[in-house]
Amino acid sequence: MNRLRALAAAPFVLALAAHLLLLALWHDRLPDPLATHFSAIDGGRADGFTGLAAYTAISSGLLLLLGAGWVAFVRRSALWGAWATAGFTGGLLDLLLRDNLDAADAAEVSTPLAVFTVAAAIGALAGLTGVALTRLPRLVPPEPVVPVPPVRAPRLDLGAHELAGWSRAATSTAGTAFGAVFVVAGAGALFPAVLVTPWPYALIAAVGLVIGVPGVALSRVRVGVDRRGLTVTPALLPRPRIRIPLDEVASATVHDVRAVAEFGGWGYRTRPRRSALLLRSGEALSVRRTNGFEFLVTVADAETAAALLNTLAARGSGSGSGAHTPPGERI
Question: Which of 111, 222, 252, 258 could form a disulfide with 99 if both were Cys (CB 3.0 to 4.6 A apart)?
């Protein structure tokens, strides 16, 4: 795991080193302030400016913050994402310096929107490097499969002709608060971005709203079990939705999950042959699928959900006591 985190940090260290090196080499050829925001309407002409010292602090802090996030939550299957993020961000920052090079007045600087295409290409090449690293098992060993101890699958006492459903909301207080902070920061930055100067307030507003709005929306989900199977849907949005049909349910149990220890954090997480939607640690509904994969979702009263899901799945397969499907009844 330490080796994986080091490999996730490496592209951000390289990007930061390259960026600081360019700043040092080009220091006498850069205007102060720099042109840091450009109008898409006015042919890419500069309409926002940042002092050279402030720009150095902001750009370095951005790379360090992104790197810290990837190091904290990286997984082997997502290592390419760390390299792609570092490549795109570092490339975009370096291209911004190039556009300012030898400018007598930052107000005269312009940049084509194609610069984003070039930065994306740099990010793609860096992402391919991350993919190549994961192909080297000696350098990045596969994550161990965590064995799940067998647990007796509970059943609900349900008559052959009876139908039942179960639904419960699951909320993450910490996730709601985290998302709300970003929403407030993003909304608050909109006013100075429009009235004062776009940079860096436009970036703060974009990051705050892009992270905050989905964060708030996905911090509360509705978990349901009925004759269609298991469904997990955001409480405020119709999508994205997770559904496991009854014919794919092998068994359902209750699992006391430790979010950080088992999955490295909260939210939608993946591990070898396991995936989970974790809003907290503690009681979770664990569904073992017929293909051997496991899905977990943290929700209260998971035992009732597991018992009902096992009973309905047994009905669908025709196994278990009284678990036949009545003629004409569609489960």
Answer: 111
